[in-house]
Target: Transcriptional regulator
Amino acid sequence: MRMRVPSRVSVGSARTRGGAGEPQENSLGEFLRARRSRLAPSDVGLGTGGRRRRVYGLRRQEVAVLAHVSADYYSRLEQGRERHPSPPIAESLAQALRLPPDARSHLFRLAGLNPNLRPDTARGQVHPELLHILDASHQAAAYVLSPSFDILAANAHARLLLSPFAGTDEAGTDQNLLRILFTHPEARTYFTEWPVAAAGSLHTLRLNAVRLPQDTDIADLVTGLSAGSADFARRWENGAAIGLDHAYRRVVHPAAGHIELSYRVHGVAAVPGQHLLVGSPAPGSRSAEAFTYLAAMGGQQP
Model:
């Protein structure tokens, strides 16, 4: 008796088989495929090695890298073999594909998630790649800033370094670095290069405002500081000359004294305007000793 061989079904088709043998819609996979086809590598900060592509759009592997998931997992999402990404993965996909708010909400609905679901903490808003670098920066002060200079995450060294400005937020500091600079009474004493720090921060904020015109947090910050600080209002109108990488290099900590740090600035194309600052003292310097002393003091606190 001859066996009948079923026809081959492509797992990448718009419909795949469900458990009961009924076809299922692959709306999530189709949506992901359509959104990546609209983005060029240059849109997300990726290069092509000078080679022209026959097909416009991002490749699956490129979206996987941007979203910090495996290429196999992302392929299963597009093919409909995986239909229920977790909220953090859905958020990473939305960031990787540069989705505006309405498209992000649609993605969450297709994944069976609440479109209004947001990270529970400021740290939850940080891109996973930046969090990985922050958590690995054991001998440095590391913190992540939003486009409006909110402190989204900070490691132990950064919290100790900014402890003179302690507040009530989860990072242990006033949650906005520009408000610290322009409104805290100790800021101009603490930041020994205050004019440099202020100019660099304003320059970066202005760039973020141009690149992210829909960011209401930036607009609210500028409005609030312009009303509360005549110095900020004047400097904002006049502009600034230098960038973020020159800011906050020398400070005078009330417990540890003078500390000088060299900063590296990290960004991720998927989250424009979000920056990780990692500051380290020169090995063997007086600043390194002060930094070690500050860390030891922190370890003694309950």
Observations:
- The first helix runs from residue 27 to 37.
- The beta strands are 15-17, 23-25, 141-145, 151-154, 250-253, 257-260, 262-267, 275-280.
